[in-house]
Amino acid sequence: MEGYRRFLALLVSALLLGFVAVVCSLVWVFRYREGLGWDGGAAEFNWHPVLVVTGFVFIQGIAIIVYRLPWTWKCSKLLMKFIHAGLNTIAMILAIVSMVAVFEYHNARNIPNMYSLHSWIGLTAVIFYSLQLFLGFAVFLLPFAPVPLRAALMPIHVYSGLLIFVAVIASALMGITEKLLFSLPHWKRPPEESAKVQRPNGGAPEGVEAESTMTDCSNADRSDAGFNSDAARKRNFKLDEAGQRSTM
Ligand code: HEM
Question: What ipTM was reported for this prediction?
Answer without folding.
Answer: 0.92
